[in-house]
Write a structure and sequence with these properties.
Pfam families: Lectin_C. It comes from Lutzomyia longipalpis. Keywords: Disulfide bond, Signal. This is 16.4 kDa salivary protein. The protein is α+β, with helices and mostly antiparallel strands. The protein has one domain: Mannose-Binding Protein A, subunit A (Mannose-Binding Protein A, Chain A). Helix content is about 25%, strand content about 25%. It contains three helices and nine strands; from the N terminus they run αββαβαββββββ. Strands 1, 2, 3, 4, 5, 6, 7, 8 and 9 form a nine-stranded mixed β-sheet that branches. The protein is globular. About 30% of the residues are buried. The protein binds calcium ion (CA).
């Protein structure tokens, strides 16, 4: 029991420490937390959830521009790829914002790079399920393999 309580304190303490591992930027209607360390997509999801944040989503051109500018002011390399909270299941035609399950249908705002997403059923890559912003492409979106370690963005909506 003592060890359990100690464990709870330790985890809480580590969670607080982890909050310092993010660059915090206030945008319209939300605060985004840009990680300073890289993680696979699903680890990034866990990290956002543990801190009571959600994995960042992008609902409009304005939100996209604001997040792109925030990332460009923080990340060190314009070659960087950054995970955001979009995921597609193998059996699903659509990418969805993981926080709300919203499908990115034809009428949704999107900012895919040319020829992206390349995962099936759109094209031929069968192992690209996770969404990133690619700064070799000005922040445009693409899908990639989820196990890759990348910086990622959590958010808290107002
Ligand atoms: Ca791709």
């Amino acid at each position: 029991m003592k060890f359990y309580i100690f464990g709870v304190f330790l985890v809480s303490f580590l969670a607080l420490c982890n909050a310092e591992d993010y660059d915090k930027v206030k945008l319209t209607g939300r605060t985004v937390y840009i990680s300073r360390s890289k993680a696979p997509w699903f680890t990034a999801l866990d990290n956002c959830n543990r801190l009571r944040f959600t994995f960042a989503m992008i609902k409009s051109q304005k939100e996209n521009e604001e997040l792109t500018n925030a990332l460009l002011s923080v990340i060190k390399s314009d070659e960087e790829n950054v995970w955001i909270g979009g995921l597609r299941h193998d059996l699903d035609d659509y990418f969805r914002w993981i926080s709300f399950g919203t499908a990115l249908s034809k009428t949704s705002y999107t900012n895919w790079a040319p020829k992206e997403p390349t995962g099936r059923p759109h094209r031929t890559q069968n192992d690209e399920f996770c969404m990133q912003m690619s700064f070799k492409d000005g922040g445009k979106w693409s899908d990639n393999t989820c196990w890759r370690k990348r910086l990622y963005v959590c958010e808290k909506r107002d």
